[in-house]
Design the sequence.
């Protein structure tokens, strides 16, 4: 199977699909059609079976902007936001448990955490499950500085009389 690089550019109501390797140009109405249209065009132009043609879109441009680069940034930010949300949830559970173990009333804990008193009870119970089964809900973060800060906050949220080895932290 041969892979052809294609570039895509918006022109009016159409997406122009350029195939530099065969000096070819075709078009698609929608982006989700680009790969199919490009493969069909290449197969017909080079007189090879469609099943032997693969395409890789190297750029998508519209309004003078590289949309693939922007998409990459959006995807990266989504991944980071998901990692941060997982960290926040774990820290909230740990803090709820720590407050419960310290005897802080549930309604006061709800004020500290910014959630309902019912949610505080749920969070404290969820954290107790994690204390008994430490591998449940482990968070892995690619950014070292976030991972270090997460470990520090997690350690600070645990009751002081608990001894937790470094290997138990996510």
Sequence:
């Amino acid at each position: 199977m041969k892979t052809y690089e294609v570039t895509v550019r918006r022109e009016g109501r159409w997406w122009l699909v350029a195939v530099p390797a065969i000096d070819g140009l075709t078009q698609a109405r929608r982006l989700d059609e680009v790969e199919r249209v490009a493969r069909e065009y290449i197969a017909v132009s080079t007189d090879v079976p469609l099943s032997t043609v693969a395409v890789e879109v190297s750029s998508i441009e519209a309004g003078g902007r590289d949309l693939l680069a922007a998409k990459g940034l959006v995807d990266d930010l989504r991944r980071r936001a998901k990692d941060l949300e997982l960290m926040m949830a774990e820290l909230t559970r740990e803090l709820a448990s720590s407050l419960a173990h310290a005897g802080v009333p549930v309604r006061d804990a709800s004020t500290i955490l910014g959630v309902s008193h019912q949610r505080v009870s749920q969070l404290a119970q969820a954290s107790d499950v994690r204390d008994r089964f430490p591998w449940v809900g482990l968070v892995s973060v690619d950014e070292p500085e976030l991972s270090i800060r997460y470990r520090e906050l997690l350690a600070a949220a645990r009751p002081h009389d608990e001894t937790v080895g470094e290997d138990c932290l996510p």
Notes: The two ends are 43 Å apart (CA to CA). Residues 135-139, 162-170 have pLDDT under 50 and may be disordered. DSSP finds five helices and five strands in the chain.
